[in-house]
Amino acid sequence: MVNLKVNYDEYIPLRDIVFKTLREAIITGDLKPGERLMEIKLANELGVSRTPVREAIRKLELEGLVIMTARKGAEVAPINEKDLREVLEIRKVLESLACELACKNVQPENVVVFEEINAKTEEAVKNERIEEITKQDVAFHEAIYSITKNDRLVQMLHNLKEHIFRYRLEYIKDMKNKGTIVEEHKKIIDAIASKNVRAACKEIERHIEVQEKYILNTLIKEAK
Amino acid sequence: MVNLKVNYDEYIPLRDIVFKTLREAIITGDLKPGERLMEIKLANELGVSRTPVREAIRKLELEGLVIMTARKGAEVAPINEKDLREVLEIRKVLESLACELACKNVQPENVVVFEEINAKTEEAVKNERIEEITKQDVAFHEAIYSITKNDRLVQMLHNLKEHIFRYRLEYIKDMKNKGTIVEEHKKIIDAIASKNVRAACKEIERHIEVQEKYILNTLIKEAK
DNA sequence: CGATTGTATATTGTATACAGTATACTATCT
DNA sequence: AGATAGTATACTGTATACAATATACAATCG
C-alpha cells in the first residue's frame, strides 16, 4: 500500500491564518499601537468574512496584543516603558528557568548546535547583517527552549518574545550592542555545557538586562 | 449635576459570560477532561447562539484549557502528571518573582492584611471548613500579587492558578496537609515583612512543592 | 454663537444560514 | 461473516443577516 497519509496539519482554518497575519502585523508595527482593528475592513482586506477575523481578535485579546472596549471594538495595545519592564521582568525568570532545565537535560550534541548558531551569529555581526543577527539570536534561544522538556514554558516564552519583538525591531538596529551578543551567548553556552545552573541563570539574566537597557534607551530617544 | 456615570463595566458581552462559564465548568470538573465541547449543544444549554460560544472556545484554546482538532472541534484538555509538573515548575518561579517584588514594595499595612487572611485561614482549618480554607488560600496569594505592581505577572499567575485548580480541588480535600498551610504562609509573611527576598522566595517555592507532592499523591491514588 | 437634540452612518454583538467534512450506520458483495 | 462502499447525520467552518449601540454631523433652540 502506498503511504498516502492525509496530512491533517495541512488544513489550517482561516481564523488561524488571520490570527497569525494580524499578530505579525502588530509585531512588525504594520499595525500601529492605538490603531483600531475594524472587522469589516480587515475582512475585506484579507478577503474573508468577519467570523474568522473576530475569532482571531479574541485570541489576540488574550495574548494582550489588542485591547478590547465593549461595543467599540479592538485596538492595538499600546507599547510603553511599563509594559516593556513588566514583560522583561517575567521573561527574565522564565528564561532563567529554561536555562536551569537546559542544564539538567543538556547533551553534548546540543552544545554543538548552540555553538554552530553562535558561529553564524558572529558571522552575521561581522557582515552587519541585521536580519541575520535577529534570526540567529532567535534560533539560539529556541535551541535552549527545545531541551527544557516543558512545552508550556516554551509556549509562554514564545508568546513573551513576540511582545518583545515589538520593541526589539528598533533596538536591534542600534548596532552599538551587536558585538556583545556573541560574547554573552558564549558565556551562556559554557555555563549550560558545564551544567552550572547558577552561572547559566546569571548570564541569561544579564543578557536580558543588557537588551532591556538598549531597548529603553531607544524608547526614550524616540519619545524625544 | 448628578453623578450618573454610565458604568461601562456593566455591560458584559455574551462571549465573556460564556467564556467564564465554560472555564469554571472545566476547572470544577463539571466538564470532564476529554469531553467534547459541542457548539450547538452548549449554545442551547446556555441559551445563546453559536457565535459567542465559538469565541469563548477560541480563548479557552489559547489558555490551554481545551484542545482543538481541525474540523472536529474542541475537547477539554486532559489532566496528567506531566502537565501538572510543567505548570507548577513555571508557577514556582513566577510566585517567587511575585514574592521578590512584594519584598520591594511591601508596606506595614500590607503585612496586616496578610496576617488577617492567615488568621481566617487558621480559623477555617480549625473548623475543617474546606471551602473557606481554599478561599482564604487564594486570597493570601492574591494579596501578594496585588503589591507586585506587575499587572502582566498577576494575569499570568491567575491563569496558571486556574489550571492548578483543576487538580487542587482534589488535593485540598485531603485534610492531612491542612495544618501546614498556616505555618507556611506565616513564614512567607515574615520573610516579606522583613524584606528578605531570599527567604521569601525559598519559602514560597517550598510551599508550592508541598502542594505539588500532595496533588501528585492524589493523582497517583486516583489512577489506581 | 454655543449648547443641545435629532438623525444618519458606522461598527460591534448576536443569530442564523449554507457548505464541506467527519462519523456512524446500513446495505451489498464476496 | 467480514470487508467495502454507500448514505444519512452531525458537526465544524465560513459567510451573511439582523439588532443594538456608538459616533459624527446637521438642525434647532436659547
Kindly summarize this structure in a few lines.
Chain A has 224 residues and is mainly alpha-helical. Chain A has helices at 14-28, 39-46, 50-63, 81-105, 108-126, 130-146, 151-173, 178-193, 197-223; strands at 36-37, 66-69, 73-76. Chain A has 9 helices and 3 strands; from the N terminus they run H-E-H-H-E-E-H-H-H-H-H-H.
The oligomeric status of these chains comes to homodimer
Biggest interface found? A-B, 33 and 33 residues
Helices of chain A, by number, come to 9
Overall mean pLDDT of chain A: 89
Fraction in helix of chain A? over 70%
What is the global morphology of chain A?
Answer: globular
How much of the sequence of chain A is in beta strands?
A: under 5%
Poorly predicted tracts of residues of chain A: 1-6
Question: What is the H/E string of chain A?
Answer: HEHHEEHHHHHH
Distance between the termini of chain A: 68 Å
Number of strands of chain A: 3
